[in-house]
Design goal:
Elements (H helix, E strand, L loop, with lengths): L1 E7 L5 H10 L4 E5 L15 H9 L3 H6 L4 E2 L2 E4 L4 E4 L11 E2 L3 H15 L2 E4 L3 E7 L2 E7 L2 E10 L6 H6 L3 E7 L1 E9 L6 E6 L2 E7 L5 E8 H6 L4 H9 L9 E2 L4 E3 L3 E5 L2 E2 L2 E3 L5 E2 L7 H20 L5 H27 L7 H10 L1 H11 L5 H4 L2 H8 L2
Parallel strand pairs: 1-2, 1-10, 2-7, 4-13, 10-20
Antiparallel strand pairs: 3-6, 4-5, 8-9, 9-10, 11-18, 12-15, 12-16, 12-17, 13-14, 14-15, 18-21, 19-20
Helix pairs in contact: 1-4, 1-8, 2-8, 8-9, 10-11
Length: 389
């Protein structure tokens, strides 16, 4: 059997993409080496733009029905300045976010794809793509070969599809931080709490089952120089935080030290990349899930126009990649700056203004949760308005 689209990778980019294509009447095969529900490394935080897309897809209420708490308050402790309040969007609305467990979120997305008519195969590993006349026409693995008009690699940072098609890296800033997290009980957190200190960042998000995700970010070289097990570094670093006294770790500690900041060339004859397979930013900004949702949304529109004859597929995919790169350019630079612990121009002035004016604080918090675009927030006219010239 031949499909319109084969999607490899069934998490936050692949599952919603497959769902959207199937809802439009296209034949879609969705493959993943994992079985669902299952965990994966994640920041957990769904930023505002991700929330908007879940609502548009009629999945947001389903997610909240699983017991995932909505987040409407953010506290950011920079040492000299502490900001606390309700983040807002550019329109002034509350920028609601959430931080679901991934075994809940990903399973919900896969089930939505099944309900839309996607053929889903779990526990299936793709090993290579199938070429014909210089174009990708399918995928192959142990005991199977399937064909399609388009193959989508939504299979993460170590993408098999990206490797198989030789997708070149267009911009690689390297791995800048080491990130680790675990789930804690006994921690009364109603919103997001972030503490920034020289060479260290700690964030807390309420998640399912009354637990709190507690994440630690350290400069990568500092982390590696300690030459201790990652779990021990995590626990030793957090021992100094009074906020965690009397609380208990309820899971193993997940550690990652090689999360590079990059984007790859993401399209070619018969193939395209989505999510972390094509574009990855340091988890310090927590953009991964929402960017994956955005890729699914934009790429589904591109593919459907092409399949309907409205645009040549090669031209449409090129536009998709160019639009994605342009849309994330400011976020990419800002995130790399955060991860490298570089000072951001005018940020101290913005913090001072935000400390003095609650409305400015809500705008700044809104930028961090994705309710306001970074380039618009730091536009000269907006900075002048906030900090007085």
């Amino acid at each position: 059997m031949s499909y319109d689209v084969i999607v490899v990778g069934a998490r936050c980019a692949g599952a919603p993409l497959a769902m959207l294509l199937a809802r439009a009447g296209r034949s879609v095969l969705l493959l993943d080496r994992s079985r669902f529900p299952s965990e994966t490394m994640s920041t957990h935080w769904v930023l505002r733009q991700g929330i908007d897309l879940l609502a548009e897809w009629n999945l947001l209420n389903d997610l909240f029905a699983t017991g995932c708490p909505p987040i409407t308050e953010v506290r950011m402790d920079f040492g000299d300045v502490v900001l606390s309040g309700v983040p807002t969007t550019a329109s002034g609305a509350t920028a609601v976010t959430c931080a679901p467990r991934r075994f809940v979120l990903d399973n919900l997305l896969v089930r939505a794809a099944v309900e839309a008519g996607v053929e889903v195969r779990e526990g299936v590993a793709v090993s290579d793509v199938v070429w014909e006349d210089g174009a990708v026409v399918g995928v192959t693995g142990a005991g199977f070969t399937e064909r399609a008009r388009l193959v989508v690699g939504a299979d993460g940072r170590n993408s098999t599809i990206a490797r198989a098609v030789g997708a070149a890296t267009a911009d690689d800033r390297g791995a800048l931080t080491a990130t680790s997290y675990a789930y804690w009980s006994g921690l009364d957190v109603s919103g997001v709490e972030t503490t920034i200190r020289p060479g260290c960042g700690v964030s807390m998000w309420p998640t399912h089952d009354g637990l709190t995700v507690v994440g630690l970010v350290l400069p990568r070289q500092d982390f590696l120089s300690r030459k201790q097990p990652g779990e021990q570094i995590y626990l030793d670093s957090l021992a100094q935080f009074d906020r965690l006294r009397g609380c208990r770790v309820e899971s193993r500690v997940r550690v990652a030290t090689n999360l590079r900041n990059y984007h790859r060339r993401s399209h070619g004859p018969g193939w395209v990349l989505a999510g972390d397979a094509g574009y990855h930013q340091d988890p310090i900004g927590a953009h991964g899930i929402s960017n994956a949702f955005s890729d699914a949304d934009q790429l589904s529109r591109t593919i459907l126009r092409a399949l309907d004859g409205g645009v040549r597929i090669e031209r449409g995919l090129a536009r998709y990649e160019a639009r994605r790169n342009a849309d994330r350019a400011a976020s990419f630079e800002f995130t790399c700056g955060q991860a490298a612990l570089r000072p951001v121009n005018d940020f101290d002035h913005v913090l001072s203004a935000a400390a003095a004016h609650p409305a400015t604080a809500s705008e700044l918090l809104g930028m961090f949760v994705g309710g306001r675009r970074i380039e618009q927030f730091f536009a000269p006219a907006n900075l002048a308005r906030m900090i007085g010239g």
